[in-house]
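in:
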């Protein structure tokens, strides 16, 4: 099919400074068992293409699900018409934006393909896990689920190289809700943070197959636990909460199109300004953050972004100092700064915009036990359950599912409804210990939203456990 589409595209590509075709096919399957009953199995397939035309300094896009030669010709005419309309009225000189000059292929590493287990086998496995969540009569809702997304994306340039990438995404989920009287608590398998690229092998590697009884027990623990205390306390965050902290208070503020004002009308701007790069102390000297789309199984790994720029690992924060933004080739040309290969689109009918991909806190040299021992009065928190952040991505307030007190260097009692708040700069500067490789987890989220019209993309975050000093912690809500 791709050879036919390529031939049709090359036959209708307009004479312009640049023209490309991005073809995307996505297959999505979902299976879940809730309260021991199989839910309707979901399956969908989406196929289409986006044509990009650069002509006379203007830039135009047109998308189509009609991949016939006539359909592609119509989209090419529309894209060129938009390019000509925008010429002379653009925010940047698009002739200076680098275009793909390197072809290649990239694929998710898969050991056990999704298709290697028939649907009845998946259903039986989920039924068993679902039953294991029901550890107590007070568990009133319980569910085990699997989602698999297969994506094939190909970029053809009218007079340049071809880039082909194949992705396999696996998103396992477990949740248990406990209730007693007016009190309700929920515990999950990291709130879908255990999403990875690859196949069914990740069910073993993430501990998914053994996690259900623990999640059920912890939901009951939370039901019986007191509220988290309130005060200025040391805060030890597990990797599955660190990913949300990284996402909201580093990832989104550093997206270059947001810094340039593109998101102002939809989801706010950023407290970061262009003059901060190279001089602003974002966090303590222990904070090292990388843009790294090369980790094989991480959710947003890839070989090329959707503009065709080759991806490589780069520091965005080094020893606490802000080094570079998360901006693709177009935003880099607009701002005159160096960014990364993160122009990404959620589908064939959206143009690429600046999106964080794999954004990771690099491990330090402290064990989990050493970090706990360093705390006299604090709280350990796991698994995000709520978030709120201001329009400049600066002030934030986050809630977690599960917490334990730390007293005199020892993990203590479980507490429920743990929350904390802060301001990005002071919070990251309070980072006083960073976990080593033994605490490091590669995680992600399948549903980060941004842009008008909205685009949901998959984002990877890897992090060790991290310890912050004197954070505003509170219970309830």
């Amino acid at each position: 099919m791709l050879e036919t589409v390529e031939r049709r595209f090359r036959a209708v590509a307009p004479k312009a400074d640049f023209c490309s075709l991005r073809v995307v096919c996505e297959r999505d399957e979902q299976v879940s068992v809730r309260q021991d009953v199989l839910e309707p199995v979901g399956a969908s397939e989406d196929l289409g293409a986006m044509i990009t035309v650069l002509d006379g300094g203007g830039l135009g896009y047109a998308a189509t699900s009609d991949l016939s030669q006539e359909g592609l010709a119509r989209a090419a005419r529309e894209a060129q018409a938009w390019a000509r309309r925008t010429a002379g009225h653009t925010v940047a000189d698009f002739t200076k934006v680098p275009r793909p000059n390197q072809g290649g292929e990239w694929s998710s590493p898969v050991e056990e393909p999704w298709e290697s287990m028939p649907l009845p086998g998946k259903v039986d496995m989920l039924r068993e896990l679902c039953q294991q969540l029901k550890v107590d009569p007070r568990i009133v809702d319980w569910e085990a689920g699997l989602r698999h997304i297969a994506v094939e994306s190909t970029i053809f340039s009218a007079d340049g190289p071809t880039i082909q990438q194949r992705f396999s995404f696996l998103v396992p989920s477990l949740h248990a809700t406990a209730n007693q009287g007016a009190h309700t608590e929920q515990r999950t398998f990291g709130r879908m943070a255990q999403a990875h690229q690859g196949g069914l092998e990740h069910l073993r590697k993430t501990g998914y197959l053994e996690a259900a009884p623990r999640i059920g027990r912890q939901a009951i623990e939370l039901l019986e636990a007191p509220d988290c205390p309130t005060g200025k306390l040391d805060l030890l965050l597990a990797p599955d909460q660190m990913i949300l902290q990284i996402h909201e208070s580093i990832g989104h503020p550093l997206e270059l199109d947001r810094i340039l004002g593109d998101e102002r009308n939809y989801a706010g701007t950023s407290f970061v300004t262009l003059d901060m790069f190279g001089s602003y102390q974002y966090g303590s000297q222990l904070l090292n953050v990388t843009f790294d789309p090369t980790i094989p199984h991480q959710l947003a790994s890839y070989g090329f972004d959707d503009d065709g720029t080759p991806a490589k690992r780069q520091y965005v924060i080094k020893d606490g100092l802000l080094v570079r933004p998360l901006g693709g080739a177009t935003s880099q040309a607009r701002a005159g700064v160096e960014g990364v290969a993160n122009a990404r689109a959620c589908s064939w009918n959206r143009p690429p915009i600046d999106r964080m991909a794999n954004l990771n806190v690099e491990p330090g040299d402290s064990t989990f036990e050493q970090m706990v021992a360093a705390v006299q009065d604090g709280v350990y928190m796991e698994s995000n359950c709520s978030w709120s952040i201001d329009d400049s991505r600066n002030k934030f307030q986050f809630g977690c599912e599960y917490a334990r007190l730390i007293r005199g260097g020892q993990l203590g009692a479980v507490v429920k409804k743990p929350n904390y708040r802060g301001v990005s700069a002071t919070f990251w500067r309070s980072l006083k210990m960073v976990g080593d490789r033994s605490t490091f987890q590669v995680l992600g989220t399948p549903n980060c939203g941004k842009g008008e019209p909205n685009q949901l993309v998959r984002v990877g975050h890897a992090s060790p456990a991290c310890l912050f000093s004197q954070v505003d912690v509170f219970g309830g809500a």
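note: The first helix runs from residue 2 to 12.
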